[in-house]
Design a protein that fits this description.
The structure holds 2 protein chains of 2 kinds.
Chain A: H1 2-17, H2 19-39, H3 42-45, H4 51-69, H5 71-79, H6 81-86, H7 92-114, H8 116-121, H9 129-156, H10 160-183, H11 188-197, H12 199-207, H13 213-237
Helix pairs in contact in A: 1-7, 2-4, 2-7, 4-9, 4-10, 4-12, 5-9, 7-9, 7-13, 9-10, 9-12, 9-13, 10-11
Chain B: E1 2-11, E2 14-24, E3 28-33, H1 40-47, E4 55-60, E5 63-64, H2 69-75, E6 76-79, H3 91-101, H4 106-119, H5 135-147, E7 153-157, H6 165-179, E8 183-188, H7 191-197, E9 200-205, E10 208-213, H8 215-222, E11 225-232, H9 238-245, E12 252-257, E13 263-270, H10 274-287, E14 292-298, H11 302-315
Parallel strand pairs in B: 3-8, 3-9, 6-7, 7-8
Antiparallel strand pairs in B: 1-2, 1-4, 4-5, 9-10, 11-13, 11-14, 12-13
Helix pairs in contact in B: 3-4, 3-5, 4-5
Classes of the chains: A mainly alpha, B alpha/beta.
Amino acid sequence: MNGTWVVARREIRSYVDSPVAYLFIVAFLVSCSVLFFFMQGFFAAGVASLRPWFGLMPIMLSILLPALTMRMWAEERKQGTYETLLTLPLSEGQLVLGKYLAAMTVLGAALILSLPVPIMVSAFGRFDPGIIVAEYLGIVLLSSASIALGQLVSSLTRNQMSAFLATALVLVAMTMLSQLAAFFSLPSWLSAMVNWLSLSYRFSSFSKGVVDSRDCAYFIILSAMCLYLTTRRIAFGKWS
Amino acid sequence: MIAVQGLRKSYGDYEAVRGVSFSVHDGGVMGLLGPNGAGKTTIMKMLTGYHRPDGGVALLDGIDVDEDPLAVKARVGYLPEGVPLYLDMSVADYLDFAARARMLPRLRVKEAMDRAMEACGLSGMGPIRLEHLSKGYRQRVGLAQAIIHDPPILILDEPTTGLDPNQILEIRSLIRSLGEKKTVILSTHILQEVEALCSSVIILNEGQVAAQGSPAQIAESLKGEDRIECVLAHGVPESAVDQLRAEPSVQSLQCSELAGERVGLSVRSPAGQGDRAAEAVFRWAVAHSAVLLEMRRDRLSMEEIFVKITGEESAS
């Protein structure tokens, strides 16, 4: 566990020393707020609802989170530090988990800084804090799966830009799946399958304030699976 | 102590290392010498657990690197080729990371950092970002991270490449002093480095051990003949030269005119007869009142050995 923390600490430092973390947080807060307050006409609607605010997050995060994950392994490979890292007495699991925790920390900072929005909006009406907590929980779980997937993609590429594009493509596709299912009026068995995979569909029950164990399990298993595959990818690299 | 037995590694169809065996004892500096692509770096990558061998065993302090890579990594300090560093970090931050990643207790981190920085001539450079350092100083940081946990084994891949002559001397004397207590393996294609630093040498060629031993032993085993180079203050009569030429220990003899009245004598003797030939030259000089200004035995230099071994191998 100690080794994981050492890696996480270095990664967080590197996020903080580079503009990536700040750009991510600012882009996340600004884009969500602008879309929520102006594009969706919050003030004109006359209804104080936070649902659209949280509804924006999955698609915003699927574009912005790849910016955090793209460098994780691709940069190590490019600058050669991959070799130094892999010859430290740290297991693949510690390395992968450390990097994952660092990205989750940056995400956590962004979410904490987004708190003023729900706090402000709640002045206009009576909100159930339980729903807000559920929605934040959903966002954390969704981001966890996205970061784990982004890390896996980064471990498979040498180039940060291809890591970014590939991750964003997969995440946007997984987020939009449910809209596609609705748009094309697919047969129910197919749309059920598509929804089962869709990140935003899984998230939608959280935004209703429902914490379904199946949805939690989906995100947790997806995260764990991607993290595990990343450790295998790194271990496998020693044979090449 | 490092013991390597039948180590093999292929990259696709290319066999980089083909059954290499050697051992290095504590308190010795071993040089891996070879032309580019001989397999030096691949061997080091396998010893540090970065690559897994296709066959063979590497034991470091008795631990099989393939079975317990983490235990081996904890005992090894490694300077990879090209010194990859996190350039966005400062010297102090990077060494702090290196120390903690090696599981040094928190209270000992500061002390270990100070010690490594002083040993590598980095005192007072803690706050400087690595991207602002020259190549020589980056090399020192790479070396500092390798010794920060005071490992019993050091593996250094081309530790002096790209340094200026002063820096090379400094780094060499650092490696020499580290080698007194630790087991050090270094790779190089600079031959003087081996002569200056190493107690034993392995010459690799095309993934195989071409020669092995101490620099002197290798030179001895390859030495076809002994050479004695002399400088005389004055010329000597031709008849006197013929007399020396007739000595049984003298294989051939060449005279050359040097600046002033000096004359050069180049004596060659069959392998192992060097002492006798030298004695003959001395007695001959006394008998003919030839004034010897200079007399030296030539050893085959590592340079010549290297060319001889790697050249012959690739020719065959």
